[in-house]
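Usage

Read records sequentially. Each one opens with the input sequence:
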Amino acid sequence: MRPLTPGSIVDCHTHTNFSDGVGTFEENARAAVAAGCAVLVSTDHLTLPAVMDPAGEVQVVGAELAAHRVAWENARDAHPELEMIYGFEADWYPGCEENVLRWSAGAQVLLGSVHWLGVIDDGAWIDDTSDLAIWRELGPDEVWRRYVDAWCRACESPLPFGTMAHPDLPERMRNEGFAATIDLEPLWDQMVACARDTGRRVELSTAGWRKGVGDYYPARGLLERFCRAGVPITVGSDAHVPADMCDGIAAAYAHAWDVGYRSVEAPRADGSWESMPLQ
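and closes with the structure output:
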């Protein structure tokens, strides 16, 4: 395990074709090496209850968990020049804790995220552009309120989330005609207080630029609030194709510096976390 130098490229959020990505572990690793990556964290979507994803399209289904681990180990062993870390993006939903702990056994990193609003048998994905019923039924302001409540409950969960991914995910639907009409700052303040009080890290994600949001996740105003509150950050691409591995990470470091951060948090292969200075 090599020491990290200031500004080392660490991508804390990536996906493969075992969940809703395109590339294999091997293809992602090769692309990360080509991008100058020092640490690559694999975070496929964890196994979900069948009602949330009946066709198994967005998750590592339970029957493939063992094969998923073997494929990751093969890529890791083939690329000693790259520090690879095994993890999952674990959706929080009411009552998820037992499922997450069982299905994520052996993971070194867990990303906490909220994509599903409601109870298991009566909920909906908020970022599914093919099914906008929840947005039409509730309206963007109420979706935002419920999302923030769920996000704070995820922060308060006993699950060992290493970081909370893409904190203001509802912004993804702005370009679908569902921009909030309320002032989001009170909701931002609620999120910041919860992250601070529960000791969570939050993710600075470059994916918002690829999704046409026109900003990072979180938006600058929210990131500034996290910074003032002393909430540490990780940085991730949320890449779903090999070509996007480490996309925009260096620019995100510069953005974080401009906001006021002087370091980012990086997981290491021995299970520790390291505070890496920014240049």
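Summary fields computed downstream for this record:
- Residues 77 and 267 are 19 Å apart (CA to CA).
- The chain has one domain: 9-277.
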